[in-house]
Specification:
With about 525 residues, the protein is of the alpha+beta class. It is about 25% helix and about 20% strand.
Length: about 525
């Protein structure tokens, strides 16, 4: 199957993002047809265990499924989508919150014809959690603290029951099984296929229980999929074929939509939102668990001084960036707890309003009346990155106004990720990332002293203690309280500077129906249908 032929069948109109009520659609879905989506960056591997980005997860969640998931068909208008059963039908939690028993969906098969069962679940968990397991993949070594924190044992008590036993309480356990943001996806692949192809080659021969089956993939170009005719959750999916094209350049992505080469595009450039709407394309947004933030190198001068860090926060005109550069496709941010999180406090006020005069005074108090020079590392594009270089240049200009001379160094996304995960060197003053989650467990990533995504190598015993208390919380209200304290400590210490929260603009043609811009990193493509 050649990609050019698939594109030819995709239709004549371009990409759009739509919410549940974004456009009037015929009442009854019409099955069939091909949907082509223009993706914003490299689509990554099809092995979900080592899925490394939101763009990769967007594709992989259509091939593989987990025990539970967020309901991405629900337009919650900024509230977290609810966690619902997927390959499990229900689950029980012991009184001490150390044992989780999942009851599995029956009569489900992988797309290679082998049965989905409890043994398959155990196989997949051990593949990323148990170094003694024959099929353990070393590339997933960083996954367990994120997905399976405190897991002590996992076993199948019969074909339809899986029991997880924890050594310590993890109040986020189920939420992390539903978490769509990387690293890794806690989804289930065919043990037969993994054994046949091995860890190194399974991504080239992916087999799951999901609504789509990969028919062709060309690294750096596209992934083509067809409808799974035996999918357990009928009548989904509606489209016969789904193609993700990799189009990192924003202008090229928009032009592909306008030319009818794609039906939908991810991450609409801010300047194109109004023109696309004027030309009858649908553009949909929703608050997301997405925070575009700076990390400051607290181990290197001058950022070891909290007054300098606060000065930087005060010097950046976030409202202006959101309004003028991003054209209101993002909202100003000031908390590492997202607006879609249960822990978001509507009574919070921005701790460091834009105040360049006050920022210069803080710099002088810290011993830098004439400012200083520093290096800022940034990606040129990437998962959730909006328009990172113009945003970085905006920050560069703002900091120049208070005497901070910023040398901006940019890298291709995968190269940047490698540098970011290795942590900032002593010559680098700040870097940037786009992350966040509907589960406040994610706060472990930027703040935990032992976390690899803690690129500033923050080592704050008080923060570690708050993280421990949040994970061990006895109730939702306790968990929310600790998450708020973590966010508030960052507001005080300014380890990270949240800049904006993306509203996740998608754009699509009038022939695309049923798409929901969920308040999550991912979207559901099973309920999309198209008219010719």
């Amino acid at each position: 199957m050649k990609f050019g032929r698939l594109i030819g069948r995709a239709g004549l109109l371009g990409l759009m993002i739509l919410s549940a009520a974004a456009a009037a659609a015929p009442a009854t879905p019409v099955p069939g047809g091909t949907l082509v989506v223009g993706a914003e960056t490299e689509l990554g591997t099809r092995d979900p265990a080592i899925s490394e980005s939101g763009a990769a997860a967007r594709v992989n969640q259509l091939i593989f499924e987990g025990l539970v998931a967020r309901d991405l068909k629900a337009d919650t208008k900024g509230a977290p989508p609810p966690v619902v059963a997927k390959l499990a039908t229900s689950w029980d939690v012991s009184a001490d919150q150390l044992t989780y028993t999942f009851h599995l969906r029956k009569n489900v098969k992988f797309t290679d014809g082998t049965p989905f069962n409890a043994q398959a679940v155990v196989f997949n968990v051990r593949r990323v959690w148990d170094p003694s397991f024959q099929y353990f993949t070393k590339r997933a070594a960083g996954i367990p603290p994120f997905r399976y924190l405190y897991l002590k044992d996992v076993k199948a008590t019969d074909d339809n029951t899986v029991v997880f036993t924890l050594s310590k309480k993890n109040s986020f356990f189920v939420y992390q099984l539903a978490e769509s943001a990387s690293p890794g996806l806690p989804t289930i692949g065919s043990p037969t296929a993994i054994a046949k192809y091995g860890n190194d080659d399974f991504g080239n021969h992916p087999v799951g229980t999901g609504p789509f089956i990969v028919t062709e993939q060309v690294k750096g170009q596209y992934v083509a999929m067809k409808r799974n005719p035996d999918y357990w959750n009928k009548p989904y999916p509606y489209v016969d074929q789904l193609i993700f094209r990799q189009i990192p350049d924003p202008l090229t992505r928009v032009n592909a939509l306008r030319a009818g080469e794609v039906d939908m595009i991810v991450s609409v450039p801010p300047n194109d939102v109004a023109p696309l709407r004027k030309d009858q394309f649908i553009v949909a947004t929703n608050p997301l668990p997405h925070i575009w933030y700076l990390t400051l190198n607290v181990h290197a001068k001058p950022f070891d001084d909290v007054r300098v860090r606060r000065a930087v926060a005060m010097a950046i005109d976030k409202d202006g960036m959101a309004r003028e550069l991003l054209r209101n496709t993002a909202a100003p941010a000031f908390s590492m707890v997202s607006r879609t999180s249960p822990a978001w406090d509507p009574n919070w006020k921005p701790p460091y309003p834009y105040d360049p005069v006050g920022a210069k005074k803080l710099l002088a108090d810290a011993g830098y009346p004439n400012g200083f020079s520093t290096i800022y590392e940034e990606a040129t594009s990437g998962s959730g990155e909006m328009i990172p270089v113009p945003m970085a240049e905006w920050i560069q200009r703002d900091l120049a106004k208070i005497g901070i001379k910023v040398a901006l160094k940019t890298y291709e996304w995968n190269t940047y990720l490698g540098r970011w995960l290795n942590g900032m060197g002593p010559d680098v003053g700040m870097d940037q990332q786009s992350w966040g989650s509907n589960s406040d467990f994610w706060l472990q990533q930027p703040f935990r002293s032992t976390s690899k995504p803690n690129s500033g190598r923050i080592n704050d015993p008080q923060m570690d203690g708050l993280l421990d208390q949040m994970v061990a919380a006895d109730s939702d209200s306790q968990r929310v309280g600790f998450a708020r304290k973590i966010a508030e400590r960052n507001m005080s210490e300014v380890y990270h500077i949240p800049i904006v929260s993306d509203l996740g603009a998608f754009a699509m043609s009038q022939k695309v129906h049923g798409f929901v811009r969920a308040s999550d990193w991912l979207e559901d493509y099973t309920n999309i249908w198209i008219t010719q």
